[in-house]
Amino acid sequence: MLKNLPMVTSPEDKKEGEGEIILEEEEKNNALNNPKNKMDVIQELVALIEAVQSIGDFRRMQRKEAHSLVRRLKLLLPLLEEIRDIDTRIPEAGMTCLCNLKGAFLAAKKLLKMCTEGSKIYLALESEDVMIRFHSVYEKLNQALDGMPYTEIGISEEVKEQVELMRMQLRRAKKRTDTQDMELAMDMMVVLSTEDDRNADSASIERLANKLVLHTVEDLRTETVAVRKLVKERGQNTETNKQIVDILRKCKQIAGLEVTGILDDPAVPKALAKCPSLAVPNEFLCPITLEIMSDPVIVATGQWYEKNNFPLPKKEAPRSSDNSNVEQNNEIYSVVQNLSSNQLEVQRKAVRKIRMLSKENPENRILVAKSGGIPPLVQLLSYPDSKIQEHAVTALLNLSIDESNKKLISREHPIPAIVEILQNGTIGAKENSAAALFSLSMLDENKANIALSNGIPPLVGLLKKGTIRGKKDAVTALFNLSLCQANKARAIEAGIVAPLLHLLEDKNLDMVNEVLSLLLLLASNSEGREEIGQMSVIETLVQFIKEGTPKNKECAVALVLELGTKNPNLVLAALQYGLYEHVVELENSGTNRGQRKANSLLQLMSKSEQNS
C-alpha cells in the first residue's frame, strides 16, 4: 500500500520555462523605472501580435488551436492601445504585467512558428505534448494579466470586460483535454510495427502520408529538412526521433524517393572535400535529395565547376516516356474489358492482372478506375470461384488506397460481398477482406455499413482462428470500427475481449500496442470495462509497464488509468502487483504521453489510497 506519497508534479511542470525566452530581471527593472520604456514595451507587444498574425498555414493537427491562440492575442490590442494613449505614468503593477505579457507573447510566437515550420510527423506523433504547450502559454497569458490595475491606469470598462472574457476563455481552454486523433494514432502504430512490403501495409503508409500532407516531392523535401533540424536539436537516439525518422523513411519510400542518409547533411562529393573554403550555393542543391546537382539550370555565381576543376558526370540523353504511357493505358483498358468476358479463364487472368497492376503504383490505380474497372470487380466478389473472389477483393483493397477510389468503390455497395468472403473465403481472401474493410472504414459512413452488414463477428472470428497476418488485419479493422460508439457494444457482444486478451500473450503477433489501444477504446464502454477489468489483466498490464517497450508502457499505463478512473479498486489491486515504483520510473523516463499518463495515474493512486 502507499505511504506518505510525495506531491505529484507533472513532467511539464518540471520542464517549465525550458527552451523559452525569459526576460532578465535587469530588463524588468529598467522597464519599471523608466517611463519611456512604457512605449517601448507596448510597441514590442503590438509588433509581436502583428508577427503572429503573419504566421499562417499551420499544421493540420494544431490548426484549430493555433488560430484560436492568434485570435485571443488580437483581443488584447484594444487594451494595449488604451495604455499607449494614456499620458500618465503607469503604476509598477501595470508595468510588471506588461513585461510578463511580453514573455507570454514570445512563448506564443515560438509555439506558433513550430506549428507552421516544425516536422509534421513530430507534431502528429506528439500532438498531446504540443497541446500541453498551448496550455502552458494560456497559463502564462492568464498570469501576466492577473493583477492588471485597470482602474489606476484608466482602462475603460468595455476593454476591461473584453480582457476578462478572454481570460475566462483561456481558463476553459486549459481545462479542455482534446484526445488524440485515434485513426491517425493507429495508422502510425501500424506503420511503425511493419517491416514487410505487403500492400495492406503500403495502404496504411499512403493513408498516413496523405493525412500528414507528405505525398509530393516538395512536401517530403521540406519535411526532411525539418526532421534534420529536430534531430539536431533533440538528439538522434531518442525513441520519438527514431520513430519520426522511420515514418519519414517509409513515406519517402512509398513515393519512390531515395531513403538512405535521411539525417545526413546535404552531400558534398569527394572532389570538393579538398576545397573546404568553397561554399556551395543553395541553388546547386537538388530540392529532392538535397545533394549537389550535376547540371543546375541556373548558375547563381556565374562560375562553378570550370574554375574549380570539378569534373561533372556525363549527362545521358533523356528518354521519352510518351509511348510507354500510351501502351500502359491501352493495356489497362483492355484488361478491364476482359473482366466482363464470358470465358472463365479470361476473367481469371484479367482480375489477377488488375490485382498486380493496382499494387504497382498510384497511377495504375487511377487508370483502372478511369477505365471503369471498379464495378466489374465488385460484381466478381460474388462469383462462385474462390480464386476470382480472392483476386477481386485484393484488387479492390489495392485500389482503395486512393481516396477518390475509396468513394467510388463504396458507391458500388461491396461491403456485404466482402463480409461474405471474410466468412467463407480462402485464408488469403479472408486476410485481404479484413484489410479491405479496414481501408473502406476510413469513410465514416462505412463504419456503420460494415456493422449493419454483420461484419464485426467474422472479424472477431479472424482474431481467434486467423493466421498471424489475419489477426493483425482484424485488429486494425476492429480498431477503426470501434471508433464508432455503437460499434463498441457490437464488438463486445461478438466476444472481442477474450481473444484480444489472449493476443497480449502472443509473442509472435508483435502488436501489443495496437491491442492495448483497442482495449483502451473498448474500456470506455461499461460492459467492455467490466470484461477487461480482471485481476489477471491488471497483472499483465503491470508487467508491460515494468518490462515493455516505451510504447508498450505508454499504452499499458493509459489503459490502467482508464480502468482505475471508473473503478478505484483496480488501482489498489495494481498496487499489490508492484505498480507504484514502475509508474514513478515511467513518469521520469517514459515517452511524453507516457509521462503524462503516469503522472495522472500517480494522482489517482494517491486519491485511491486516501479513500481506502
Automatic annotation (TrEMBL):
One of its GO terms (biological process) is cell surface receptor signaling pathway. Residues 591-612 are annotated as: Disordered. Keywords: Repeat, Transferase, Ubl conjugation pathway. Functions as an E3 ubiquitin ligase. SMART domains: ARM. This is RING-type E3 ubiquitin transferase. ARM repeats lie at residues 372-409. Its EC number is 2.3.2.27. The keyword Repeat applies. Residues 279-303 form the U-box domain. It holds the Pfam family U-box. It comes from Rhododendron griersonianum. SUPFAM superfamilies: ARM repeat (SSF48371), RING/U-box (SSF57850). GO terms for molecular function: ubiquitin protein ligase activity. The keyword Repeat applies. Pathway: Protein modification; protein ubiquitination.
